[in-house]
Here is the input.
Amino acid sequence: MKIASSGFSLIELMVGLAILVILLIAGVPALSSWMQNAQIRNEAESIQNALQLARAEAVRRNTVVRFQLVNTIESGCATSTQGTSWVVSLDNATGACDAIPMQDGVAGDQTPRIIQRNAATSAAPNVVVNATLATISFNGFGRQESVSVSGGGVTPSPPEQVNIVITNPTGGACASSTNQNNPMRCLNIVVSPGGNVRMCDPALNLLDTQGCG
Here is the structure.
């Protein structure tokens, strides 16, 4: 009695490989789009978390704390509405973003008394940030602080809503309420005059709780 051999024939193996190649080719655009969208999400979450930290520290310390978008965290840093790096500090960090972060209860903290900072990373090289303000200050009540109190001309008086838009032109156009087929889910960070910080999707309906309406 002849026993059939186990395993795959050459033809079956070739067919299987062909199907695998087709599936991989079909999945490449979707994977690429997902990776580009992940850059937007990561940058948006980083900025949102930094703003929430600045607000929480302002309340905890009962003093003005600043969030600043900067072009770098090196010594020559400058505020920029297109900055992808940021600094949370008690003083103006312009030109001193490389200062040693402060330690509570330790004397001799360096000006600008940095609480936390974050540099733009290679993980999100294609992200573009556009903000209506580069510096946002919070007071001990958790509200945006006006220029008349915080000084330095860093925030408007009276405070106004600040919008930070995160896009990825390399990945493609942003989806919108009129065109959901565009590949990028761009995100906005909105800071109200009262200090509320929220992330929203401008492509969603205005009535959606996650929309920017």
The longest helix spans residues 10-61. The beta strands are 65-70, 85-89, 114-118, 128-131, 135-138, 162-167, 187-191, 197-200. DSSP finds two helices and eight strands in the chain. The longest strand covers residues 65-70.
